[in-house]
């Protein structure tokens, strides 16, 4: 098998450009490892003339992604355009239909349409690989789908959106409020065109849906994920957490409980000195737990030209080497439904409320928590300059339902000012 | 391909027993992921009757490993006996010769005879996989050989012997001397029958030789590794390091320099707050750096029944799925020679010496360092009760040659008492 593997690349943004550079720079090394040369034969992007710092003159140009997907001289279609619908979807479907292997970095497309695409790819006998869609350069999909394939996976946790982690880290380090750091991140070009994808947790939840599908043998189901963004995290919360030896992270958790698979992507508190707690800036981390392996922690750059191109290239080399796997690690038609399970896993919670500064206010809230069956582990009331007394509660292990009930009862007492903040604490 | 994949397991110690349990417990899940059932058909171990807590009565028994390797009903021979020579080597050679795929956890065998075994396996067209030989449950070989295959690897670093890391961590936490903790580890059963394999750095160096072969496209060459054990690390060194914000780790480093590939497995100092510095007890960590991916950090249990069985099972499932790769990621006959390169990489060093307590002693040592071209960054002299004044030097970046020259010149001054300790500092 020494004939070249021929790539058609759709999308020449940061990742596409990085892939072109990698194919050009490491051609000899890639050929030695793949057992055959890997070549680019055709590309497709919005602008043909933009200066990208790489020479693409040797490659055929296509204006239409679907035409690229159908080219006879293309073996593998690499989809780096992004977008959950539109041209990326049309291209991917056309490529599968034309019997081409596909490598994709498109988390949104796969999280939303992955099941149908997997069924189509498996029916056609083509590969559909997406290492670059989750956690940038970290080979997390390969580790989970292949390296840990002997394990019954029990939990997957992770920080998978570098922008949110940058914002939270920067708020703590510089003592700045959310809005200021959000604007900073915007100026630095860290945010998606629609920033809700980042700060609303959507992008990270797309990634979690893909990992959960592989780890737990379910159809990827974005809608089954309990979703919460970081927009409501205040500098007060960050300081209070630090005071307790905790840090706030936008944390994805997929875990098998007695009532089925629970998936959430929400701001959580983790110990400051844990691997997750120490994660700074745009770095990603995924923690995988299985019945045999215990716990594996994978850490690396979550985005960027080089790291993402590295992940794409890993998939391309797999295909060149002849690796053929079901898209999510077992046949798509054998995947179970992932239903939206209300979180029943029992965890400690962090609860911050502002109380009116009157005698008995604290007692009323404590009573409300008790009525909801929420037991208090630690409580702190902070000094304050205005009429609002900030109160912090760390509960014993309880459920999100109980916490929401406790918050509702607290609000009914009439002593709570503003909106309470309730965050789960992921201790281990 | 729905016929079962049939395993013959040689060795039923901790790992072998763990593998039997895993095959039995997760049979359905493994079949779904592998696309076919994985079955054990025959086993071989020293004692047939020992109670291992698993039922092996359904499997054929072989007294002779070579006979196991040649059984017609075995597709994959799993070598979990250990030992760099003798039965493990005979079994592996016989299995390859009989056209069987082999999965091995034997780092010593592969580090010493890997090149010949790889050539034999590739000539026969059989797989020889060894994820479990390096860093226990961490899928580091898969990550390096497959996930990061598009990268020119620039450096691999890691803590890969849990026993050494346990000893060093325990010395620091409990303030105990080396000999006491060594004896503790021995009592706990953490040490190999020949403890030099652990504390002499040999076991970890075997692992580094395998990673270097894959990452840098060289023949595994244990003899090319600069080797140093932890036996000479004193509680004084551990305290002095802590004082400087550093921790001592038995650290493997393989890096490409202008003069070729340098490999070392020696006690080094790392920042206490770095991922490597924070690694406690028996956990392993491997850091991989490549031109595209930047830096990936992998962390997990370095040994134990479940984690090691998980790694073995990952290889078995790869074989069941039809994955076929050259043993070290590119054809064995294309691997370069790894020569024993004298370390030229420039690093800061930690130097601890005892000086006679007389005026001018410190000046003489400082002069000796200067003559050797070693520039001092920080120097501390500690208070002392006896006649020996402990002096600590942190140098600016220099080479190991220069440091050894400086030590030799220092010894010639006649003011140094006892043996100086010189350790490289790995800062990033």
UniProtKB/TrEMBL annotation, chains A, B:
Molecular function as annotated in GO: homoserine dehydrogenase activity; NADP binding
EC number: 1.1.1.3
Ligand binding (L-homoserine): 192
Entry-linked Gene3D superfamilies: 3.30.70.260, Dihydrodipicolinate Reductase, domain 2, NAD(P)-binding Rossmann-like Domain
Keyword Amino-acid biosynthesis applies: yes
Recorded metabolic or biological pathway in which this protein acts: Amino-acid biosynthesis; L-methionine biosynthesis via de novo pathway; L-homoserine from L-aspartate: step 3/3; Amino-acid biosynthesis; L-threonine biosynthesis; L-threonine from L-aspartate: step 3/5
Binding, NADP(+): 10-17
Pfam families: ACT, Homoserine_dh, NAD_binding_3
Catalytic residues in the record: 207 (proton donor)
Signal found in the keyword field: no
Sites where the protein binds NADPH: 107
Example GO BP: threonine biosynthetic process
The protein's enzyme class: oxidoreductase
Recorded family membership: Belongs to the homoserine dehydrogenase family.
NCBIfam families xref list: PRK06349.1 (NF004976)
PANTHER family, per the entry: HOMOSERINE DEHYDROGENASE
Protein name per UniProt: Homoserine dehydrogenase
Source organism of the structure: Roseinatronobacter ekhonensis
Organism taxonomic ancestry: Bacteria, Pseudomonadati, Pseudomonadota, Alphaproteobacteria, Rhodobacterales
């Amino acid at each position: 098998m020494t004939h070249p593997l021929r790539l058609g690349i759709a999308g020449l943004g940061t990742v596409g450009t990085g892939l072109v550079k990698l194919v050009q720079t490491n051609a000899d090394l890639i050929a030695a490892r793949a057992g055959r040369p890997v070549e680019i034969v055709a590309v497709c992007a919005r602008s043909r003339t933009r200066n990208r710092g790489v020479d693409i003159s040797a490659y055929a140009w296509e204006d239409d992604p679907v035409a690229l997907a159908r080219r006879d001289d293309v073996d593998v279609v690499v989809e780096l355009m992004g977008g959950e619908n539109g041209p990326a979807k049309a291209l991917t479907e056309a490529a599968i239909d034309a019997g081409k292997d596909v490598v994709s970095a498109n988390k949104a497309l796969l999280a939303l349409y992955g099941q149908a695409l997997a069924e189509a790819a498996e029916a056609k006998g083509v590969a559909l690989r997406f290492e670059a869609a989750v956690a940038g350069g970290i080979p997390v999909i390969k580790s989970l789908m292949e390296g840990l394939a002997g394990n019954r996976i029990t939990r997957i946790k992770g920080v998978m959106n570098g922008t949110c982690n940058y914002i939270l880290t920067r708020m703590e380090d510089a003592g700045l409020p959310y809005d200021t750091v959000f604007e900073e991140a915007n100026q630095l070009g860290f945010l998606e065109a629609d920033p809700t994808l980042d700060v609303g947790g959507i992008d990270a939840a797309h990634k979690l849906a893909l990992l959960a599908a592989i780890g737990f043998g379910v159809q990827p189901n974005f809608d089954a994920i309990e979703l919460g963004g970081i927009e409501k995290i205040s500098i007060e919360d960050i300081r209070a957490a630090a005071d307790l030896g905790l840090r706030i992270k936008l944390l994805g958790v997929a875990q098998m409980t007695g009532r089925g698979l629970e998936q959430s992507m929400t701001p959580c508190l983790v110990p400051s000195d844990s691997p997750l707690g120490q994660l700074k800036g745009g770095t990603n981390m995924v923690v995988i737990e299985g019945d045999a392996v215990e716990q594996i922690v994978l850490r690396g750059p979550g985005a960027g030209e080089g790291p993402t191109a590295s992940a794409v290239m890993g998939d391309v080399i797999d295909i060149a080497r002849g690796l053929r796997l079901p898209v999510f690690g077992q046949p798509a038609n054998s995947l179970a439904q992932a239903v939206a399970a209300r979180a029943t896993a029992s965890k400690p919670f962090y609860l911050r409320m502002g109380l009116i500064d009157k005698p008995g206010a604290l007692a009323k809230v404590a009573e409300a928590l008790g009525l909801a069956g929420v037991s208090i582990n630690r409580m702190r009331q902070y000094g304050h300059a205005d009429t609002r007394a900030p109160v912090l509660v760390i509960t014993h292990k309880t459920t999100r339902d109980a916490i929401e009930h406790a918050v509702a009862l607290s609000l009914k007492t009439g002593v709570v000012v503003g909106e309470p903040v309730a965050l789960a604490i992921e201790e281990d």
